[in-house]
Specification:
Elements: H1 7-14, E1 23-24, E2 28-30, E3 37-45, E4 50-58, E5 66-70, H2 95-101, E6 105-109, H3 125-137, H4 142-158, E7 168-172, H5 174-185, E8 191-195, H6 201-206, H7 225-231, E9 237-243, H8 251-260, E10 266-271, H9 281-289
Parallel strand pairs: 5-6, 5-7, 7-8, 8-9, 9-10
Antiparallel strand pairs: 1-3, 2-3, 3-4, 4-6
Pfam family, one: DLH
Domain Dienelactone hydrolase: 85-222
Keywords: Hydrolase
């Protein structure tokens, strides 16, 4: 572990701040792709954000385990919460739906700039860059804002009726990055699944890869980079899914991050192929978090 990279120091580097007290707007029933699941939508309102989210709630009596399923990036700003919910986009990224089918209550938020959090004009990459640059001059980062929003959703789920145990977090790509950082800065979180979301700054530079702007956190490389984040995760349990031919998160860098997890923390599964989720990914997420 890189000396000094504590949860508090990492939270300060990414500028996560404190999640605000959250309340949900009026719930609206949505058409569920599974008749055994109720699907609802609302907006989670905090002092700093208004976070549209979907919620799968099993129709069977609780208590239920709970999870936050965080969507990927994939340069598809019109997609957010609806993709892990299995409503739109890549069915191989429907890990929120897979978790709900395993009996979880699952919250799926839009990160800022995606789906219902796109601005009316200047949507897409320009808005993402606008938010990222302004987060920097305000002393934070875009990833810090994403983490704060996810932790606000965690806060809300913890207070939800019939939720049992610590809330888990899971995500692919951008969702995996935010799941990793959320797990690292919040002691309440104990379990996560990170799919194709880790590599090193050095490996990305060598491969000429330009990542989403939130991934670049000032001061993190001097503190040991994402390998130091991995090394700080003592007392946690996570599944790491990685692709040997990942064109966004080079395998050599991913291996360095994975090697930095303390003993007993990470279960690692490598697969051949590229970055995009495969048909086995949703079930891998759900089975692991369900303890199967």
């Amino acid at each position: 572990m890189t000396a000094g990279l504590t949860p508090a120091r990492l939270a300060a580097l990414i500028g996560v701040g404190q999640p605000g007290v959250a309340s949900a707007t009026e719930w609206r029933s949505e058409a569920s792709p599974d008749p055994g699941l109720g699907l609802w939508s609302a907006v989670l309102v905090t002092p700093g954000s208004a976070i549209p989210f979907l919620l799968y709630r099993p129709l069977s009596p609780g208590p239920w385990p709970a999870a936050v399923a965080i969507h990927q990036h994939n340069d598809e700003y019109h997609l957010g919460k609806s993709e892990p919910a299995g409503l739109h986009g890549d069915s191989h990224a429907a890990y929120g739906l897979a978790l709900a089918r395993r009996g979880f209550i699952v919250a799926m938020p839009d990160l800022d700039g995606f789906e219902d959090r796109q601005p009316p004009t200047d949507a897409g990459l320009r808005y993402e860059l606008f938010q990222a640059m302004n987060a920097l001059v305000e002393g934070g980062t875009l990833h810090g804002r994403h983490v704060r929003d996810v932790l606000s959703v965690v806060d809300y789920l913890e207070k939800f009726e019939d939720v049992t145990g610590p809330v888990a977090v899971a995500g692919h790509s951008l969702g995996g990055q935010i799941a990793l950082l959320s797990l690292a800065v919040d002691e309440r979180l104990k379990h996560a699944v990170i799919s194709c979301g880790v590599t090193t700054y050095g490996a990305a530079r060598e491969a000429g890869i330009l990542h989403n702007p939130g991934w670049y956190i000032p001061g993190l490389e001097d503190a040991g980079g994402y390998a130091a984040v991995a090394a700080s995760l003592r007392g946690k349990r996570l599944l790491v899914l990685a692709a040997e031919g990942d064109e966004h998160f080079p395998a050599a860098g991913a291996a360095k991050v994975i090697a930095s997890f303390p003993d007993g923390v990470a279960t690692v599964r490598w697969r051949p192929g590229a970055h995009a989720p495969d048909s086995f990914m949703p079930e891998a997420v759900a089975q692991w978090l369900a303890g199967e």
